[in-house]
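S.,

Sequence below, as promised.
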Amino acid sequence: MGTSLLWTALITWPLMGCVQFMCARIGMVTGTGLAAMLKQKFPRWVLVIFALALFAANTINVGSDLAGMSDAAEMLTGFNSHWLVVLFGIAIAFSTVYFRYFQIAKALKWLALFLFAYVVTAFVVQPDWRAVLRDTFIPSWPKWHDAWQSFVAILGTTISPYLFFWQASEEVEEEKAMGRRMLRQREGATGQEIDNRKLDVGVGTFFSNIVMYFIILTCALTLHAHGMRDIETSKQAAEALKPLARSPICFTPSVLIG
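The prediction came back faster than expected:
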């Protein structure tokens, strides 16, 4: 497939931004999360189905994230990744309970900068920019099964249901961190607050899709271009890049944070 799916970043940004902003408005105006709103508007059995589906999706997402982090940490430290999964799980659970919201948010904002390693890598390998621009602005529909799987995976991981719940809950948590513990204190939002959140969500989803774009581009320029197409884990991806860089450790921080 190579760079043939780069154009998807152009459609996932507005789609993701619109959905995230709608969820943000729900959280800001009602002062509650998405699950609480579903409970008020729909029968209990609908909420249960949504909750179970979200639980299953979140469990898979968390599991894959922990696996990626532990594989990357194993390359840095040499410790067994199975033990590192447990260590990361305990550390994350402890952090979310012990640290305040703004402390965690500030740390994650700085850690996100590591993801721009993918952007730097794309320029280091010196691609054919004419071909890259063509695949970016001229859609090329998938023509075989694997390509369609990748296309669906891109849409499913970019516009993921758990993000809907997260965005609304994030608005509530931010207001709680500002001292608005009671529901009546959180209800409602001014036009200026709505406009500020629209800008915040727009910029955030833009950079999220920029990183996604360069991850696709970097993998196409390195792994795919060198015939490395059977990559199933983050550890394999980092090791596969070894011939292209001095050490896979160069890419490990990005895998660890991503």
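The chain has one domain: 8-257.

Coffee later?
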